[in-house]
Amino acid sequence: MDPIPDLADLSLSDIARLLAEKKLPPVEKWNPDHCGDSEMRIARDGTWFHQGSPIGREAMVRLFSTILRREADGSYVLVTPVEKLSIAVEDAPFVAVELKSEGEGRARALAFRLNTGDLVAAGPDNALLIRETADGPHPYLHVRAGLEALVVRSVYYELMNMALDEGAERVGLWSNGAFFPLDGAA
Q1: Alpha-carbon distances of 62 from 93, 124, 163, rounded to whole Å
Q2: Is the pLDDT of residue 141 over 70?
Q3: Among candidates 3, 11, 1, 182, which has minimal Cα distance to 111?
Q4: What pLDDT, on a 0 to 100 scale, did the predictor assign at position 1?
Q5: Strand pairing of 136-144 and 147-151?
Q6: In the 8-state DSSP scheme, what is residue 33?
Q7: What CATH code is assigned to 94-181?
Q8: What value does the CA radius of gyration of the chain take, rounded to a whole number of Å?
Q9: Which residue ranges does the record assign to the DUF1285 domain (predicted)?
Q10: Measured between alpha carbons, how far is 143 from 7 in angstroms, rounded to an integer?
């Protein structure tokens, strides 16, 4: 697997190029019979476990993350052309751990690095949203095909500081032509 990019060293045009070059397996086209449980779990903090033990090999987690799919019923599976295994996900399967911002106001572009090393540019296809949960509001980023990343608190605070510094009437940020409210209001 390619090394995890350092977001600080990349421009948003570099990030856009890397995203265009990234090819994921076509998990949406694979429909094998369900084979059972993977005995894997993704904790709220993004740690992957197998049979109760953390998976220590970063490359394995990155590989598994490429074959992760969300089913129509909201469950998660690891899928290959020949098997489909359930995987438990406590919150979101990914965690957005780092932020890169360029521009201001409507010209702003935001990109995130996930705990798996993947890059996601917030925009019309990758919404940033606040979801009310039992323990308060939580920020999420749409990654792909129903898969989301929980935005870590430090990154959320960065986003909020940028939004508040802009002093707009509505607390939120633009990214790649889409506005994302950060005040929890729909």
Answers
A1: 12, 25, 32
A2: yes
A3: 11
A4: 55
A5: antiparallel
A6: P
A7: 2.30.270.10
A8: 17
A9: 25-92, 93-182
A10: 17
Residues with Cβ within 8 Å of 86's Cβ and at least 6 positions away in sequence, in order, are 34, 36, 37, 38, 75, 76, 77
Query: 19: which strand partners?
Result: none
Domain ranges of the chain: 23-89, 94-181
Length of the chain equals 186
Across all residues in the chain, what is the average pLDDT?
A: 90
Taking the C-alpha atoms of residue 5 and residue 44, their distance in angstroms, rounded to an integer, is: 23
Q: Identity (one letter) of the amino acid at 176?
A: N
Please report which confidence band the pLDDT of residue 5 belongs to, taking 50, 70 and 90 as the band edges: low
pTM above 0.85, yes or no: yes
Alpha helices by DSSP H, listed for 23-120, are 58-66
Query: Which residue's structure tokens are 């940033």?
Result: 128
Percent of the chain with pLDDT over 90: 74
Identical fold at 23-89 and 94-181? no
Q: Can you give the pLDDT at residue 3?
A: 67
Model pLDDT, residue 71: 96
Q: Are 120 and 149 in contact (CB under 8 A)?
A: yes
User: Does residue 2 register a pLDDT over 70?
Assistant: no
Residue 135: what are its φ and ψ, rounded to 5°?
Answer: -105, 30
